[in-house]
Amino acid sequence: MMNESLTKQWRHFVGKAGRFGRSGFTLLELLIVIAIISLLIAILVPSLAKVKLLTKRITCGANLRVLGIAAGLYQTHYGEYVPICWGNLDPNLINPWKSWRTNLLPYAPGYAAFNCTAGKDIGGLGEVFHSVSEIEGREKDGTVNAGSYGVMYQHSLPNYETVDCGGIVTQGHPVRSSAFSSLPGVAWQDPANSVYVADSYLAKGAVSYPSQSHKNHGTSVILPPSDSGYFGLSVTRRFADRHCGTNCLFLDGHVSSFETRRLDSMKAGDGDCIWDVK
């Protein structure tokens, strides 16, 4: 009797396990799970890509702050001036200025500080520097016009005059003048709200968002968007939209990020224009 009772209990238990404890999934259940996973991937991947770009923007901003510190150290040695010249000029000129990068290099922790973390490294002439010698190069068709950061191209205020590379005293010009005074109302009306260096890319053709860099030599200076050459030249340097916006280093050393389209639409004379000297 005892064995018969145990046998009945065992059969009852096995029957329940068969009804409620299936060890597999039906095809429909598997398809539902796959569909849910696919949906989550479709939602998360773009978000993760944006997070990656935002992380690069933060690191890039840190690099620009380092360059801001380097510019501050330069000013302590050169009486409140910041290097502005964007090209290493012909040594046969009376005053063959060094570029702003070459001038800041001794005050920076190394050449990598001049590279945006989202810059494309093509292993040669392009957005990323690989050595000090590339930054210090003097050839216009070489790396002097490469890089992922550009200095802002703008004439000084009309009353600011300085010796140019030809030995002539004239209004400050970013290619022919070695440096501009950073004191308010001298070269810039409001240095604290004037961009000095920013994310930039060498462009050929129509403007694009995100930026599509042209892999060749060109210029290391950012033309003002109000300049006809900003959109019209065959090869020019514009504000870069390579990591969900453009980082800008201001003359007082702070860094802010802007929507690139907003920078491209700013107009000289407007109160919010960060590249206007007035």
* Count of spatially separate domains: 1
- Give the low-pLDDT segments: none
Biggest sheet statistics: 6 strands, mixed
In round numbers, the mean pLDDT is 83
Distance N terminus to C terminus? 106 Å
Helix content: 25-40%
* Number of helical segments with 4 or more residues: 6
Residues in β-strands, percent: 15-25%
The helix/strand series, from N terminus to C terminus, equals: HHEHHEEEEEEHEEEH
In total, the number of strands is 10
The rough form would be described as elongated
Q: Structural class, from helix and strand content?
A: alpha+beta
Rounded to the nearest angstrom, the radius of gyration is 29 Å
Question: Can you give keywords for this protein?
Answer:
278 residues; alpha+beta; six-stranded mixed sheet; 15% strand
Please, could you describe this protein's structure?
33% of the residues lie in helices and 15% in strands. It is of the alpha+beta class. The termini are far apart. It has one domain (34-265). Strands 2, 6, 7, 8, 9 and 10 form a 6-stranded mixed beta sheet that branches. A two-stranded antiparallel ribbon has the order 1-5. The chain is elongated. β9 and β10 (255-258) form a beta hairpin. The mean pLDDT is 83. The chain is built from 6 helices and 10 strands.
In short:
The chain has 278 residues and is of the alpha+beta class.
Helix and strand topology:
Layout: H1 2-20, H2 27-77, E1 81-83, H3 100-104, H4 132-136, E2 149-152, E3 161-163, E4 169-171, E5 179-181, E6 195-204, E7 221-222, H5 228-232, E8 235-239, E9 246-250, E10 255-258, H6 260-265
Parallel strand pairs: 2-7
Antiparallel strand pairs: 1-5, 2-6, 3-4, 6-8, 6-9, 9-10
